[in-house]
What we know:
By secondary structure, this protein is α/β, with parallel strands linked by helices. Helices cover about 40% and strands about 20% of the residues. It has helices spanning about 35-40, 65-70, 85-95, 115-125, 145-165, 180-185, 195-205, 225-250, 250-255, 260-275, 275-295, and strands at about 1-5, 20-25, 50-55, 75-80, 100-105, 110, 130-140, 175-180, 210-220. Strands 1-4-3-2-5-8-7-9-6 form a 9-stranded mixed beta sheet, with helices on both faces. It is globular and about 55 Å long. The two termini are about 35 Å apart.
Amino acid sequence: xxxxxxxxxxxxxxxxxxxxxxxxxxxxxxxxxxxxxxxxxxxxxxxxxxxxxxxxxxxxxxxxxxxxxxxxxxxxxxxxxxxxxxxxxxxxxxxxxxxxxxxxxxxxxxxxxxxxxxxxxxxxxxxxxxxxxxxxxxxxxxxxxxxxxxxxxxxxxxxxxxxxxxxxxxxxxxxxxxxxxxxxxxxxxxxxxxxxxxxxxxxxxxxxxxxxxxxxxxxxxxxxxxxxxxxxxxxxxxxxxxxxxxxxxxxxxxxxxxxxxxxxxxxxxxxxxxxxxxxxxxxxxxxxxxxxxxxxxxxxxxxxxxxxxxxxxxxx
Length: 316
């Protein structure tokens, strides 16, 4: 494992501002990591100190590590692991390497809304009104039929999730972008890579801390453009509920996942009127994923990546 420490010298004027570490777990992210790092370094840092950016590479076999090393003189640290252990372990590693007041975890295959993304995401933590936040997301990509079908499902889910608990619910705790208070990240350790975003939400609620959804900002993600890649993501989501029930209890977990039937029905019908074929096909795909999950063995922490979700910049 390679680790280069970066130290920032604070000034007297900085002493009252909260500090921030941005952590990026990465596995074979050569297609996007350079763009994400450039965007992070150009963020508006008014009101906080960006102490460091840590990329924890999960034994990447492509150019990820060499790309990150080119940012070493700009305050970006690389933890170059030689054994692949999965997303959970890399996020734990980032927490353990951090001493900042706030830690932001970002997926490596995202792009940021604008130069104020970090500030908006961490504002509830700066104000000490939350211990965990998550941004929204928007999808980008080449719009083939399959990706437009998935885009319809994303829009339906946004409507449902935004109406549930004013948006402050388990479904809106997106793993692609979260911010953690020091109180939370020093006590939280992920036990499994599958469903670790929901794990962080349930941990927050269980320990009487507060989650706040921040729809004012977002990251760009690329949704899969083929059934195989969608299947990888969907089966992980379905299996994650079983793992979380073992960790946090069946009743508690199911309570947080519960969706009002009338809300779901109303939202689905509104989109069915607009795009009946897309809605019907997605429902069929979703039901097939549920059926397939019964015959799928436990997914490993080091799952195969969905390659079609990695090429973002060319599609913005």
